[in-house]
Write the structure tokens for this entry.
Amino acid sequence: MDIRPQDILIMKKKHPCGDNRMLVLRSGMDFKLRCCGCGHEFMVPRSKIEKNVKKIERDESSGQT
């Protein structure tokens, strides 16, 4: 699964604040995510993220080639 920093992940389950959108700050074996609702930052293992992600929103205007 191709998940890059600055992607927004739509998760199957909601964060306790009620939002299910997470901003990817860092990717690798673990992901550092920030909740788009409350701003809480946390680390999650890659295997758990790949199992629970519903959709990836990517800003294509960032100029990646």
